[in-house]
Amino acid sequence: MSGNLEYLNHNLRRSAGPILACTKAFLASDSQPCVRQNFQNQDWYHGTGIKPADHPGRLELAVLDRHLPDACCAWCASRDVLVVALQGCVSEHSGDAYYDYELHCRRCGQFTACSYAEN
Fold it and tell me: Tens digit of pLDDT for each residue in 64-102?
């Protein structure tokens, strides 16, 4: 799985193949919809995919709870997507919230990644 990465704006990317390092590392070998694991010194959820509205990461950050249910494919705008990777945290020093997630579209088969910092 590979594809040309396209930046749509400062926080949204799309590609025919996996985008985030976590997705690249685990997607081919994942066998469960969503597992939590430390990857590159951060807690990541990764897996074969789970619907955005059902993702357990929504419970960790209010900003994810607000934005993730409305996630859609950056290629075809379909909401028939699965979250295949997600991490979120709050900086202990600044209180800023950060998150990254990657979607796999079940309609067109493409990938969308979103990164966000709430300052």
Answer: 888 889 999 999 999 999 999 999 877 788 888 788 999
User: CA-CA distance, 15 to 11, in Å (whole number)?
Assistant: 14
Cα–chain center distance at 110: 13
User: For residues 7 and 78, what is the distance between their CA atoms, to the nearest angstrom?
Assistant: 19
Written as six digits, the tokens of 18 are 């996996």
Q: From the centroid of its chain, how far is CA 33?
A: 13
Q: What is the CA radius of gyration of the chain?
A: 13
Regarding pTM above 0.85, the answer is yes
Instruction: Compute how many other C-beta atoms are within 10 angstroms of the C-beta atom of residue 5.
Output: 13
Cβ neighbours of residue 53 closer than 8 Å, sequence gap 6 or more: 68, 69
Residue 1 one-letter amino acid: M
Strands (E), the chain: 6-7, 12-15, 35-39, 42-50, 81-90, 97-105, 111-118
